TrEMBL record:
Residues 29-235 form the VTC domain. InterPro entries: CYTH-like_dom_sf, VTC_domain, VTC_sf. Pfam families: VTC. This is VTC domain-containing protein. It comes from Streptomyces vastus.
Amino acid sequence: MTAAIDPVVAALRPIGLDELVERAGLLTRLDRKYMLPVADLPFVLGGLDDDVRVLEMGVGQREFGYRSVYFDTPAMDGYLAAARRRRRRFKLRIRSYLDSGQHFFEIKTRGPRGTTVKQRIPYEGDFRRLGGEARAYADTVLAEAGINSGGFRFVPTLTTFYRRTTLFFPDTGSRLTVDTGLTWTLPDGTALRTDDRAIVETKSGRAGSGADRLLWSLGHRPCPVSKYGTGLAALRPELPANRWLPVLRRHFPTALHGSLA
């Protein structure tokens, strides 16, 4: 666990995975993302209410490894739709929970009033390509979101890795995740790592959770950071990156920045 937040997280009461899913599944939710220095995390976590609980699995394990392999078209339709803030946009990934060995194929689309809708199925097979079941599922889910993907070919475009700590807020049924050890890797092996930065994300069914208000009071504001979009923009300078330029300039000063097209 990250040394900066270990003592704070260790003091929290635990919650098991089954109870967390039952009480805060939130597959349709309002997401707010913040990128901040790891050194600021103790001030954020230390200011939370005393009843906050932390996801714990196994024997005292409270931080877990995640890997996501993202898929897009060769023309980068998913990335470009997000970069240009299109209403009908999508994100496809195979997410692996490295500590438990579970794998899911996940699809994110946009719901009403800016909500994020995530749907998923268990995944088995080669992570370098989408199997037949996953491809059929993608076509069905995207069609329901008004996206005709029949002519699309999906290929792997980015892999991310990070360590995640998940907190649960009993009074609102909302969650907060803290991701550290962030690494982005292109299919050709080009990689970017940001050990001094964390992504904090609040996931709630309503606007402005208590965690959001705490972050605002500490001078942190939501920003359009996307592990997929921001990572690709930092690693592939030929892609349009205007949506993520403020985040790139502030948190990725040595990375190559994409175009404004």
